[in-house]
Amino acid sequence: MKERIKIWAxxxxxxxxxxxxxxxxxxxxxxxxxxxxxxxCIGVIVGLFVFAFWxxxxxxxxxxYCIGQIVILVYAGYFHHYIKVNxxxxxxxxxxxxxxxxxxxxxxxxxxx
Length: 113
Hints:
Order of helices and strands: HHEEEEEE
Radius of gyration: 20 Å
Shape: elongated
């Protein structure tokens, strides 16, 4: 449940930031006629930067699997990935490179996961 809240918080924060940048860019374009090209250019550059992080927020994910009495949670964040089995983290990987395939594995009750 903690993972779900964290993911939705990321998505909400970046959605609010993206909407703010878009609205500010539109407001600055309408408000003044001087230096309009510079204002729009800065707004577009900042907007593209925020849009990239907004899009990344929708790539953060987790999945829960139930096998008998075992509950397995796999979390893939920006830089932090882990496998949690029955509430205990068994394999964890931290990296500075994100959006790359990472292999996580563990053995629980003689079963390779």
